[in-house]
Design brief:
This protein is mainly β and about 210 residues long. The protein has three helices and ten strands, in the order E-E-H-E-E-H-E-E-E-H-E-E-E. The chain has one domain. About 10% of the residues lie in helices and about 35% in strands. The longest helix is centred in the C-terminal third of the chain and has 9 residues.
């Protein structure tokens, strides 16, 4: 596979991930239980355990010792009304790689665990024809292409890192029950990127049609 460090020097390329049935050896996942890392984060559990659901954990493609984990509020109106930086209430935590916990503190009962797998590098300008769950680097594919979402992020030197798109959910009937958490939308993650170092990753905003 192409050297991933080269991706950060040129947004003409992007790395994509898709969802499929979980098998032994898979290290990233959507649905199911949160990573075991959070079992020992008592302050985090106390603050968010009854208010947030686990969504997804992705091993950082640029640092295989770390992973990004995303949680979203259980109350839809909470993240609908706080949908963009600096007040976005969808949480991203970067932490050491961890297996899935056996505990269901953050588990969304409507989402079954599926793997998130690396499907390789694509040309960014052809990605409109590619269905993906995650697009890492390149440029964001917006549902609503409005400066309203990015103005404050750009002003504070944040750049697009990756997005999670609900159109790329696993197609199996048992994956999700009821409504999609983000109304068939997408979540956009930004970070401050200097000299190929990715710092302070956050959920910048989310959108739906």
């Amino acid at each position: 596979m192409e050297n991933l460090s080269n991706i950060l020097s040129d947004r003409s390329k992007a790395l994509i991930f898709k969802g499929r049935k979980f098998t032994d050896g898979d290290t990233s996942w959507i649905g199911g239980n949160a990573p075991a890392y959070f079992d020992d984060q008592k302050d985090f559990q106390s603050r968010y355990g009854s208010k947030y659901y686990f969504f997804l954990s992705l091993v950082n493609p640029l640092n295989s010792a770390m992973m990004f984990t995303i949680f979203f509020p259980r109350e839809y109106d909470e993240y609908l009304e706080n949908n963009k930086y600096p007040n976005c209430t969808i949480l991203l935590v970067e932490h050491p790689v961890s297996n899935e916990s056996s505990k269901d503190v953050f588990t969304n009962p409507d989402m079954k665990k599926y793997a998130v797998v690396n499907c390789g590098v694509i040309n960014n300008n052809t990605s409109d024809n590619e269905i993906f769950l995650i697009k890492f680097w390149g440029t964001p594919e917006h549902i609503q292409n409005k400066n309203f979402y990015t103005k404050e992020l750009v002003a504070d030197s944040f750049e697009f890192l990756f997005q999670i798109d609900e159109q790329g959910y696993p197609e199996e009937d048992d994956f999700i029950q009821g409504n999609y958490p983000f109304s068939y939308g997408a979540i956009y993650i930004y970070a401050q990127i200097k000299n190929e170092n990715v710092m302070d990753p956050i959920v910048g905003y989310w959108q739906f049609s």
